[in-house]
Request: fold
Amino acid sequence: MADRKLIRNFSIIAHIDHGKSTLADQFLLKTGAITQREFRSQILDGMDLERERGITIRMHPVTLYHQMDGQTYELNLIDTPGHVDFTYEVSRSLAACEGAVLLVDATQGVQAQTVANAYLAIENDLTIVPVLNKIDMPTARPEIVMEEMEQALGIKPEEVMAASGKTGQGVEEVIRALIERVPPPSGDENAQLRGLIYNSHFDSYKGVVVYIRVMEGTIRRGQKIRFMGRATDGVVMDIGQFRPSPTPCENLSAGQVGFFMAHIKNLLEVKVGDTVTDALDPAAEPLPGYREPKPMVFSGLYPSNNNDFEALREALAKLQLNDCSFSFQPENSEGLGFGFRCGFLGMLHREIIQQRVERDSDLDLVQTAPNVTYEILNRKGEILVIDNPQKVPDAGQIEEFREPFIKISFLIPAGNIGDMMKICTDRRGVYMRTDYLSPTRALLVFEMPLAEVIYDLYDKLKSVTHGYGTMDYEIVGFRAEDLVRLDILVAGRKVEALSTIVHRSTAEVRGRRLIKKMREEIDRHLFEVVLQAAIGSRVVARESIAALRKNVTAKCYGGDVSRKRKLLAKQAEGKKRMKQVGQVELPQEAFLAVLETGD
Amino acid sequence: MVSPTENTPTLAHQPPVLAKPWVVPRSLYVHVPFCAKQCGYCDFAIAVGRTDRIDTYLDAVRAELARLVPGGENEPMPMDTWFVGGGTPSLLSAEQLRRLGRELAARTPLVAGGEASLEANPESFDDEKARALSEAGFNRVSLGVQAFEPGTLAALERPHDASLVARAVTAGRGAGLSVSLDLIFGAPGQTVRSWREDLRRAMELGPDHLSLYGLTYERGTPLEKKVRGGLVLPLAEELERELYDIAMTTLEAGGYKQYEISNFAKPGFESRHNRAYWANLAHFGVGMGAAGLVAGERTLNTRDLDRYLRLALAGEETAFQRERLDPLEVAKETLMMNLRRVEGMVASEFFDRTGLSLDSVFGGGADALVEQGLLARDNQGLRLTREGRFVADAVIVKLLAGAPATVEGAYPEGAA
Reply:
């Protein structure tokens, strides 16, 4: 039985790029979990894509043993993702911990996500160990950053540790502070078993690997267990800890963190946030679970080649094995054929999923414009959840059209406040407040529709602040707005894949931009092609593509035949790849026009 | 492409009556590449400033024919048509023209009532050459007039002056030759008025046949380079269309009946040689850069004069490209060529040629085009409407795109 008093469970929370993974790797090195020889950058970022982008999406727990003052401490590090889309994953990690290292880059200072994640930790009653990272850098300005930490988060300067993930400087002091400041877990190892499932992953050889934090009691190999939420039973076949490679052990007791396998074949059978108890001696009450992550951004994902539909389904199903926050269901679009409606946590999540599918399955994909989830209160008093513009009913049936609003915080140089205010108000933002962390840096808070954020707000922020601004947001709820569905008609036929939901005040501008862009992408036809943007039956914008008037080879004799045949056959092949809407051939670029209509 | 089969018929031993016209050639094309200069729009296989090689070239043509018709002069292959194109065949002297006739007749004699054409430029065609041509067995001359209006001639970089055209027509007539004129429309700077004037002057000379070609800016030609460099402005598409429209209307009114996209003739004077191309029938192609279609195989001779001379004189293969098409490609090519004819793709001819039903291969793509008034469909087959001729390429592309990915029941190409 592990001695609870010697266990410390903690996370590292930080803004993206502030050196979280590098610091985690230093912990592994300093505690002897890996040797200097094995030390390579960012061990815990298991996925290539994560390493490539320098961000951590999935949690990789690790158990470390550290000798200090004649005692061997068991340190469980539960890594957290650092991007805005993955806030819910952060809260999952925090629920399994008693403490958190709050890591701030000494060269960049407090950022929007630092603030958001620190508040998450405080709400979870975690003990915070503030650490200034990258203090070896010549551009580090520790005094100013400590002042920002005090202003923004109320952290006293004397509590702040200084370290360098790169050189290892100060890392042992951080470990000491963790042991001294973070309380050991509470919970009785002899009580009835209650373990929190905080993650899981699918292994093609072992089946589902369940990540567990034991809150009370003990879980053993061979034990008959019950998932309380699902009310399903199983037998623990294998149990262990990540040190960092999976290492078997006999049991995990209250306060410990590890994994087990129980012959579970499908990841969907294990609900993250569920409580594991003993099937023969079940606990009365489950642990407080998690809020289910709800996909907030949707878009259609179609194979460029319609024959790849099944292959795409397989690829998406495989991805879902390790990412329950991602959802998909088949849909059919007149323009694009058969594909899937996919739900994502946010825009980054969406981009990552697409890249993974393309990389893992070698498929070419077409994505439709992203949209958020809407709610419609109809005349009958029913609330419809709209994840696809095609599902919007006729205007006459709509009592209220609601969209998700977010509270969004920007941490930006004070000089950019004016520009950022304009960007936000242009996007229907409602100003909330400005907090100055220092004379030069300010936290700007707005409430605005999520739909206005998903297109290009992040790019705008980066461009206005020359890369120095950061943002974070949380959903605050659905609000009724004057929303309409903007339809695109090609030669009089509505192309459903091109419909979008927009605010009435911007519909005309959006529609005009969209069809102008499409006009550039569509070849001339044997007839005039009219493009229209419409709200219901009211046309708000119109463009036309003139008909082809003369297109004929003048001379075609014996010597011209081969060349001509090849040329025309090639053009015919090109046409076959296009999507047919009535008599009009739309290249895939035309469908992507919706994505590129930012100003 | 299908690899050549071992039982390809030996042509010389096919009884002509039984041989299918798309397997055994009944037409002979001979290319004469020599030119005094290159015209701005030209991308043909030509040789400028090499007239000293003409006699050697005639030796080479003789040698290539000997290789193609291995039975020798005892087993000649009769031809329904000859066509000598260029280049500028009229650069040959009267004596050289007579010799050319003898060489062709030796192994590929023209049948009685056959058609034998030669392309000539007005500045190098006079009474003497016209007589020589007639003596050589030719009965038709195709004059590369291109334009009468000085502005258009200059834009096309043509050396002759309009007065030479009348002389050439008179010479041809005097020698008993049927006369055809070539004109180009859509040249930079051309107007409706100047084109009407060109047409009027051409018809005034009373040729039997007229070919009217919309100017094409072929990639890499001097004229195309000028367009790309912004030195020459091509005509607006709408004006090009109008010029073509005017041509069709004017010639029909003058008694010239259109029988192909670019060709018009008085009744009975349609070019039989060119009709063989548009029906996608077999033909020999002899000379530098010439293209042939024999027993389902397309060949293209080298476009380098010295290389051609060396290979042909040595009795070696002169083609640098050879291809055999699969049945679906043959079907597409047959449609593409036949649709150029005013009578269009005749379903029974399509079936004879390919073993496939026209409707099953191209019917799917045809529906919308018929609806748009660009294509006509009846019991006889498919053909372009007058409106469809303006956009023939786009119509063909639509038909090709509507074809199935595979076909069954087609004849193996080259089967007799």
